[in-house]
Design brief:
The complex is a heterodimer of chains A (about 1000) and B (about 500). Chain A folds into eight domains: about 140 residues, no CATH class; about 170 residues, no CATH class; about 80 residues, OB fold (Dihydrolipoamide Acetyltransferase, E2P) (Beta Barrel); about 90 residues, Nucleic acid-binding proteins (OB fold (Dihydrolipoamide Acetyltransferase, E2P)); about 80 residues, OB fold (Dihydrolipoamide Acetyltransferase, E2P) (Beta Barrel), CATH 2.40.50; about 160 residues, no CATH class; about 80 residues, Beta Barrel (OB fold (Dihydrolipoamide Acetyltransferase, E2P)); about 90 residues, OB fold (Dihydrolipoamide Acetyltransferase, E2P), CATH 2.40.50.320. In chain A, helix 6 packs antiparallel against helix 7. Chain A is built from twelve helices and 61 strands. Chain A is elongated, with a radius of gyration of 51 Å. Chain A is mostly beta strands and about 1000 residues long. Chain B has two domains: about 280 residues; about 190 residues, no CATH class. Chain B is built from ten helices and 15 strands. The longest helix of chain B has 23 residues. In chain B, about 45% of the residues are buried. Chain B is elongated. Chain B has a 15-stranded antiparallel β-sheet that branches. Chains A and B meet through strand 18, strand 25 and strand 30 of A and strand 12, strand 13, strand 14 and helix 10 of B.
Chain lengths: ~1000, ~500
């Protein structure tokens, strides 16, 4: 016998080894760490497996799992090859099941023995159910009357309707009552109901339920232990079948498992490992099934075959139900999702059920209740049936003192869940593993998409929906309600429904179908015939920043070549209707210069994957930023990497206009800040890196364009050159050819390259802007290469027209008339006796020696009347921009500014125009003079009126003073000052 | 047992700082003072401090008090006059971590320094600030308690009439995993009496924006103001901006006989300045220049970073990217195990990202909160506390950066897909909502997973992601370690400079 079993053993080993491989494909870490629990099968299992494979329970029987499970737990015992699933349960059998379920089996046996010992030898004492019935009576499950009735020998005398006939089949309603009471005996708190007697109304046969059973039926159906069929009938008077009781017992298993020391666990088989254990006299073979359970830890289910002389040898297995077949642990496969029952104390494995993935269900219902302590979620369906499910452990919990539940993939506060609205639960093995929010019923069919085309004349629109399909929508012009939100409309005062509360206020969003343009995003509804009934459109915008490279105007549009901040170059066509502004004022497209920085409001629409349509809606021109304030030259002597500064020696400034408190000229050493990311370095024509310059170009001549950003002065472009610097006189460019150009007064061609710093009206641009007729100041380096080309306006003062007139009459606030006046040309007054009218407006300034005073003081009446007085007038067309009370200005004086103090400008190289001889004569020995600037001084520079601050050192000015000072030599009052020579 | 207790005690201190703080604040909003002035800005914590205290937040930052250089443009005389002085920020400590509401006080004092000359502002403003936390947003409401001001310019003196003046401020902060954004609005009226008995009323409306993250911080104001005096009025707009950012610089070593070739330095750079535009010049000075600016000349500070041994990578195109990440200690461990052509796993990328954005991380011991019996929470079955990267992955999960798949496994050691990488980056910026879910930007649009769509669209809008030459994004392809290093380095650079453009140049340079 031993030999036979030994060979059998080895045969089994061979089978095992060839069948299953022991690595863990899906769960690589299943072997890391020690398993939390190891459960070993039972020796009774092989017999149980054989016994539970009933012939009359097919594989797909609906209660197969329940039947096999209850058998494995020894709650329902069966002694034949048949289970008789559809035969009815009798009262005594039900009582026996209940007692077994609640762990009273042993006690019932003992009671039976005790009773049999004490009672005389009666036929009833041989009853197998004696102990159970008696125990039930002791526990109060059966009344004494009921027990007595059950003990009556001749049961046929009893009436099942009124007496407790032990062998009679149990009705469903009676069964529900018995089971409930049985459970409540052990745990009185079980199934406490908050509300009573509402659940049974969902059964259409609720009226047939006996009143004394209503409470029990209510509870059992509410808790989903016993429920009606699909037809909504509870069938209270039907008899309970064996299969049904098995299922019921399975449904309430979590209630009595603790009583019998059993635990139900879930998990996934991660790996199966075979091991052989040999010691003297004992040969053992283990198959360890590694399971990742639902709390994330690893359990091991062990199937052993051992061969030894000890009585514990033999197979230890567990009843396993897999795909409808009753088998053992050897049938488990990696990846199986299992539910397993274990005895907590003894680590015995009782039963394993492999759940198919088909056991994933989705249920929907209104969220009713959520219990964070038990982890149960309750929903109600359309028929008002409630269902309670347990949630998987990872769906809820406490984190950082906050409770959370995961709904629609986000952590949410359990008190803020959408109670009363529809949710969808995904159930895996009847455990909720995902909760999704559905919401209330959909009332309207609304769609959205992007407009590709709109043709109001033909009445159709082409719309691209979110799946990428384009569809045609038709409409009847005039029948569609359209609302379109412009991007600048931020407030919607009227709201969605216009006609509430008699509201006829102007709704800026009201529009018509004509206004829907390609690129609009619409939400629309259609009527029964499929035509559009309502459309709501808006545009999605984003801001883009870039530099204008080139601008080309056409009749109604302009082509704009732009470089975005990230270097992408795009071409946009701007129509005249696009709003362009600068410093908060609208400007026309003609005022945009290449080199300007712009902020665009762009609407971007993807017509097909990768196909983008961008349209510009608005442009804002940078008012000051990116202006090159200064261009310097010097010798490169090093870099401070930490402070990000360049060190230059022997620095000279080339560009004009610096921040007034800085004087950069003739510095021996100057430190300049580098921009963090976008400073450009050139060596002649080639673009280089700063490291190259540090390595090779020390002491080279360098030209740097300095930008005054909000954070200070930074170097924007730096070019290193080999040659010597030479400044040319500012003059007009006569012609250009490719990269060369020539100026008037000099016939030779000047080369340019990529490193040439070109500044046009203060903006850094490129060589393409050196065109004929621009006025430029050029620095040459080497013989014929331009290092710096600074394009400016030709210095000109003729734009400011100054006249002097005697007031004849004043029309308060509107205009005044002069009887005669003189115009200032080139320092001389030319007189004309003609009357002229000048209009005045609220921008006209009235200035006298004390400064600006209010316009109402300029009037033709009262003792302060100005009629007859003479004023300097700055003319702007037919309007007076300034009306200034100043003495007659004469005495032309010219000089170069060398010093500035508070309102006093000191000039050198002074010469005075001698009216008699018509030549400029040098003035005095000291050759210097102070010119005081008064409140009523007119100062002109670059065709514009300026402040005293704008006169800088180096400017050559021409001064007209008053008659008293016409011959003075030291200090004069300057009443009209014009800056003649534009010094870059 | 005793050593364990001592261990936990020292971790208790760490818990106070290292518990998941809903936000880490560096430049506190309003350091510039709400008066249209600009300060030099605070400093970001150095890597040294971050690594030593185990928290990317300087202990000092918990304390509000500061004295900073300050500049302001005064328009009260009709012409802009620049004031250089100091501002002292004081009061009780700011928002208390882990509370949902509370209050504290803020005191701003402006006073002249030795470089002020004869222009002086003496101003004290005290606010009581109440705040509340709603999810990941914080609202702060300021109530003015006291405001005194006296401005002296040579012989002129302007004194604030406190009773007629008013100041209202409210700020909203929004916390994303890697960055905190905020926006505030100020509405104020200041009524001055001059010593020549002239009354001037200054009405201002100021909106300001700012953000702070581990690599940069910035705040920019746009203040529109009018001044009405007896004889003249003026209207102007001031745009001050302070930005602080960290940059990396490499320096080779000169001697040959030295154990490492060269290393990176982290340089802290500050830009602080303002621009103003006078939209309506006062009549009394009709010809003054209409724009102007002022700025601070601030010094950079620096610190050395480690020099990892990457000799084996020399010549590889991703050498510099990998070297930078190792220097910043975003990638850790033996550099030789970081083979550039191998795939990068999800866990490795998330860990590197968590370190890059300096998310607060709880170590396993502190998670048990002093009771060893309690096991740390296991959300993902393949991310167990025994893994060294468990705290980082948990931190990423808690802050909404990475979720695993279907709340099941994290698939920690599976290779990382491109769409996963981009999605996680955009999520950490909290900018998912910038993307339109319907846009089909890429030609291989149908291969993009549903959960990645919005984030990829947001990434394109931000300029982080671009389709390749054929318009594809190749969402399902795996990232190699070299590509991941390059991506992370670009991301950190974006946090250094990229966001700054939007807050500084875009707001300061454009008058709107």
């Amino acid at each position: 016998m031993k030999k036979v079993t030994k060979s059998l053993l080895y045969a089994c080993v061979l089978c095992l080894l060839t069948n299953v491989l022991a690595f863990a494909d899906t769960d690589e870490y299943i072997f890391s760490g020690t398993p939390a629990n190891t459960y070993v099968g039972r020796t009774e299992a092989p017999d149980l497996i054989y016994n539970l494979d009933f012939e009359d329970v097919p594989d797909d029987f609906w209660a197969k799992d329940a039947i096999v499970r209850m058998g494995a737990l020894n709650i329902i015992k069966s002694y034949s090859r048949n289970f008789f699933p559809n035969s009815f349960i009798s009262n005594e059998v039900l009582v026996a099941f209940i007692l077994r379920a609640i762990g009273m089996e042993q006690i019932a046996h003992e009671r039976a023995l005790a009773l049999r010992a004490g009672l005389p030898d009666m036929p009833t004492t041989e009853l197998w159910s004696l102990g159970y019935l008696n125990q039930a009576m002791e526990m109060g499950l059966l009344t004494q009357l009921q027990f007595a009735e059950s003990m009556i020998y001749d049961q046929t005398t009893l009436d099942p309707a009124t007496n407790f006939v032990r062998g009679a089949p149990v009705t469903r309603e009676a069964a529900s009552d018995l089971i409930l009471r049985g459970l409540q005996i052990v745990n009185s708190a079980v199934f406490e109901l908050e509300r009573t007697e509402q659940s049974i109304y969902k059964y259409s046969d609720w009226s047939e339920i006996e009143p004394q059973y209503v409470h029990a039926v209510e509870i059992m159906s509410e808790a989903n232990i016993m429920s009606g069929g699909e037809d909504g009938l509870f069938r209270p008077k039907s008899y309970l079948t064996r299969a049904e009781i098995a299922q019921i017992l399975k449904n309430i298993d979590s209630l009595y498992y603790p009583l019998i020391g059993v635990e139900k666990k879930f998990g996934t088989v991660g790996a199966i490992r075979d091991a052989q254990d040999t010691t003297t006299g004992v040969a053992g073979l283990n198959r360890d099934v590694y399971v990742r359970n639902s709390t994330g830890l690893v359990d091991v289910l062990r199937y052993t075959i051992s061969q030894s002389s000890s009585p514990q040898s033999g197979k230890r297995d567990a009843v396993t139900l897999r795909k409808g077949k009753v088998a053992g642990l050897a049938d488990l496969r990696e990846g199986d999702e299992i539910e397993y029952l274990v005895v907590t104390q003894s680590y015995a494995l009782l039963y394993v059920q492999v759940t198919d993935n088909l056991n994933i269900k989705t249920v929907r219902g209104k969220l009713e209740r959520l219990d964070m302590t038990t982890g149960k979620i309750t929903i109600t369906d359309v028929l008002s049936k409630t269902y309670s499910y347990t949630m998987a452990t990872y769906l809820y919990g406490v984190e950082d003192y906050d409770q959370y539940v995961i709904v629609s993939k986000k952590h949410r506060n359990p008190t803020q869940l959408p109670f009363g609205t529809k949710i969808e639960l995904r159930l895996k093995n009847d455990i909720v593993d995902e909760i999704d929010f559905i919401g209330e019923d959909i009332l309207i069919d609304e769609y959205s998409g992007v407009v590709l085309e709109n043709n109001p004349l033909l009445g159709y629109m082409k719309v691209l929906d979110s799946n990428g399909t384009a569809s045609i929508l038709r409409y009847y012009y005039g029948n569609v309600k359209v609302e379109r939100k412009e991007y600048y409309d931020n407030t919607d005062e009227v709201g969605f429904i216009d006609s509430l509360f008699k509201n006829y206020k102007h709704d800026p969003a009201d529009s018509n179908i004509n206004e829907i343009k390609p690129g609009d995003i619409i939400t629309y509804q259609t009527d029964e015939s499929g035509h559009l009934s309502q459309v709501y459109a808006y545009r999605e915008l984003c801001a883009r920043f870039g530099k204008i490279l080139n601008l080309k105007r056409h009749e109604n549009t302009a082509d704009l070549l732009l470089e975005y901040e990230d270097g992408e170059v795009v071409l946009h066509t701007i129509s005249d209707g696009v709003y362009v502004s600068k410093a908060l004022r609208p400007i026309s497209l003609a005022d945009i210069q290449p080199g300007d920085w712009v902020k665009l409001l762009v609407n971007s629409v993807y017509l097909r994957p990768g196909g983008q349509l961008e349209s510009v809606l608005e442009m804002v021109i940078d008012s000051k930023g990116a202006l090159i304030d200064n261009i310097v030259t010097g010798q490169f002597s090093g870099v401070d990497t930490v402070q990000r500064q360049i060190i230059l020696q022997n620095v000279k400034t080339l560009g004009g206009g610096f921040a007034s408190n800085q004087n950069m000229d003739n510095r021996q050493i100057l430190r300049l800040n580098l921009a963090e990311t976008d400073t450009e370095y050139y060596y002649g024509n080639e673009k280089i890196s700063l490291d190259y310059a540090l390595a090779r170009l020390k002491n080279f001549q360098v030209y740097a364009a300095l930008e005054n950003v909000y954070a200070g002065i930074k170097v924007r472009k730096m070019t290193f050159r080999d040659g010597r610097d030479q400044l040319l006189n500012p003059d007009v460019v006569l012609g250009s050819e490719g990269m060369k150009f020539y100026m008037s007064g000099n016939s030779r061609m000047i080369n340019t390259d990529d490193g040439t710093i070109v500044r046009r009206f203060g903006r850094l641009t490129g060589v393409q802007d050196i065109a004929p007729r621009v006025f430029a100041t050029v620095n040459l380096n080497g013989e014929d290469t331009a290092a710096v080309v600074d394009i400016t306006h030709k210095p000109d003062s003729s734009g400011v027209i100054i006249a002097r007139g005697r007031v004849l009459s004043v029309n308060d606030g509107k205009s005044f008339k002069v009887e005669s006046m003189a115009m200032l040309y080139d320092g001389e007054w030319s007189y004309s006796p003609v009357e002229r009218i000048f209009s005045i407006d609220n921008e006209t300034l009235f200035i006298d020696e004390n400064g600006v005073h209010a316009s109402y003081t300029f009037r033709g009446y009262t003792s302060n009347s100005v009629v007859g007085k003479v004023f300097n007038i700055v003319i702007d067309g037919s309007r007076a921009a300034r009306v200034i009370d100043a003495p007659y200005s004469t005495g032309n004086i010219r000089g170069i500014v060398y010093q500035k103090a508070d309102n006093v400008v000191s000039i050198r190289d002074v010469s005075r125009y001698d009216d008699n001889s018509g030549i400029w004569k040098k003035l005095n020995e000291a050759n210097a003079m102070d010119v005081a600037i008064r409140p009523n001084t007119i100062a002109v520079k670059n065709n514009g009126l300026i402040d005293a601050e704008a006169i800088v050192i180096g400017d050559e000015i021409r001064v007209l003073t008053n008659a008293e000072n016409a011959a003075a030599t030291a200090g004069i009052d300057g009443y009209i000052i014009s800056v003649e020579n534009f010094v870059p | 047992m005793k050593t364990m207790r001592a261990f936990f005690r020292s971790f208790l201190l760490m818990i106070i700082f290292a518990l998941v703080l809903p936000y880490t604040i560096y430049a506190l909003p309003g350091d510039m003072g709400f008066f249209g002035g600009v300060t030099e800005g605070r400093r970001l914590p150095k890597t040294m401090e971050a690594l030593l205290t185990g928290d990317a937040r300087n202990e000092d930052d918990l304390n509000l008090a500061r004295v900073l250089l300050y500049k302001e443009i005064i328009f009260l005389t009709g012409k802009p006059i620049e004031f250089t002085g100091l501002i002292e920020v004081g009061g009780t400590n700011g928002v208390t971590p882990n509370t949902t509401s509370g209050q504290y006080s803020l005191q701003l004092t402006v006073y002249p320094s030795t470089s002020s000359g004869d222009i002086a502002i003496n101003r004290t403003a005290v606010f009581n600030i109440r705040y509340r936390v709603e999810g990941n947003q914080l609202i702060k409401d300021y109530t003015l308690q006291d405001w005194n001001e006296r401005i002296t310019i040579a012989d002129l003196e302007y004194t604030l009439d406190t009773e007629q003046s008013a100041f209202d401020i409210s700020i909203i902060e929004h916390n994303a995993p890697s960055i905190t954004y905020y926006r505030g609005d100020v509405s104020s009226r200041a009524v001055f009496m001059s010593n020549t008995n002239e009354m001037l009323i200054q009405d201002s409306a100021d909106s300001f924006y700012g953000y702070n993250c581990a690599w940069s911080a910035i705040e920019t104001h746009r203040m529109d103001s009018t001044i009405t005096a007896n004889n003249w009025q003026t209207q102007f707009q001031i745009r001050p901006s302070v930005s602080i950012n960290k940059a990396l610089q490499y320096k080779d070593n000169e001697p040959d006989v030295i154990g490492f070739e060269g290393n990176y330095k982290e340089v802290l750079h500050r830009d602080a300045g303002l621009k103003y535009d006078i939209l309506q010049v006062p009549l009394i000075y009709p010809d003054q220049p209409r724009t102007g600016e002022t700025s601070f000349n601030l010094r950079n500070t620096f610190e050395q970073l480690i020099a990892p041994d990457l000799v084996y990578l020399r010549g590889h195109p991703a050498f510099e990217d990998i070297a930078k990440l190792f220097s910043m200690q975003i990638l850790d461990g033996d550099p030789k195990l970081y083979q550039p052509d191998q795939a990068i796993t999800r866990a490795q990328f998330i860990t590197a990202l968590t370190k890059a954005i300096k998310l607060p991380v709880q170590t396993v011991a502190s998670e048990t909160r002093g009771r060893r019996a309690q096991t740390p929470p296991i959300i993902f079955p393949d991310v167990l506390p025994s893994r060294p990267d468990y705290p980082y992955i948990m931190s990423a999960y808690r802050n909404g950066v990475a979720f695993g798949r279907d709340f099941g496994t994290f698939y920690a050691d599976a290779p990382l897909q491109r769409q996963e990488a981009f999605t996680v980056l955009v999520r950490s910026l909290g900018l998912t909502n910038l993307g339109l879910p319907d846009s089909r930007i890429f030609t291989d649009d149908e291969k993009i997973a549903w959960w990645a769509r919005t984030d990829l669209a947001a990434g394109v809008r931000l300029g982080l992601i671009k389709p390749d030459g054929e318009g594809q994004i190749k969402p399902g392809e795996y990232l190699s370690k070299a590509e991941a290093a390059s991506l992370l380095r670009n991301f950190v650079d974006y946090l250094r400079f990229g966001i700054k453009t939007d807050y500084a140049e875009h707001l300061v340079n454009y008058v709107t």
